[in-house]
Amino acid sequence: QVPDSFPPLRNETAVHVLRGRMKGIQGHCNSCYMDAALFSLFSCTSVLDSMLFKPFPLCDRNVQSILRDEIVNPLRKTGFVRARSVMHLREQLTEKGQCSSFTNAEKDPEEFLNLIMQQILGIEPLLKLQSGSQEEQQDCYCYQIFMDKQEDLVVPDVQQLVEHSFLTYDLKLVEIPSCFIIQMPRFGKEYKMFSKIIPSLELDITDLLLDSPRECCVCGDVATLECS
């Protein structure tokens, strides 16, 4: 355990600490979905550090301390987290979530995030989505990209995938999210939609926002009509 707090890794420090053998989060018993999610959420960003410290209304302090002291701090300090620490978290999730397969089976990352963010820590949903002309909003913690196979997208980047997915399902972001967690369409042992995906280091969500003023592509003034 590492009880002290460590900031997320940046630039050359991140490369130095995270590159090489015996780095990252050690896998064990189908933990890859959780390992990848935890690494993405905490290794190089502090956007969700409130999960580690803030006393949310429903917050389980035991799970919070395991997450902070046994996983995030060791990852940021040494670049390595042993499988036993992740298993400790999985055991607690099994107990709190009343699902015995959290310790041995492969899960969808969204199921893990919903359990730990909503039921265990009591965090407000991070995303507000609206479909088409419907007034109802969908609150969620992450967005999973669903899309049909696009022949012209051989090696896409994240920007392209998000835009294609939102367009396909006629979705808009109701507001700018404080944190935009996106699950890529690469999952399962048998099928991968794309052999690789290029990370977009910045994501332009201008065209994904509901009722956001945008520039007309013809005259340059504020647009009054939108064509998908």
TrEMBL record:
<keyword id="KW-0493">Microtubule</keyword>
<dbReference type="InterPro" id="IPR038765">
    <property type="entry name" value="Papain-like_cys_pep_sf"/>
</dbReference>
<dbReference type="InterPro" id="IPR018200">
    <property type="entry name" value="USP_CS"/>
</dbReference>
<keyword id="KW-0963">Cytoplasm</keyword>
<dbReference type="GO" id="GO:0004843">
    <property type="term" value="F:cysteine-type deubiquitinase activity"/>
</dbReference>
<dbReference type="Pfam" id="PF00443">
    <property type="entry name" value="UCH"/>
</dbReference>
<dbReference type="InterPro" id="IPR001394">
    <property type="entry name" value="Peptidase_C19_UCH"/>
</dbReference>
<protein>
    <submittedName>
        <fullName>CYLD hydrolase</fullName>
    </submittedName>
</protein>
<dbReference type="GO" id="GO:0005874">
    <property type="term" value="C:microtubule"/>
</dbReference>
<dbReference type="GO" id="GO:0005819">
    <property type="term" value="C:spindle"/>
</dbReference>
<keyword id="KW-0378">Hydrolase</keyword>
<dbReference type="GO" id="GO:0016579">
    <property type="term" value="P:protein deubiquitination"/>
</dbReference>
<feature type="domain" description="Peptidase C19 ubiquitin carboxyl-terminal hydrolase">
    <location>
        <begin position="24"/>
        <end position="205"/>
    </location>
</feature>
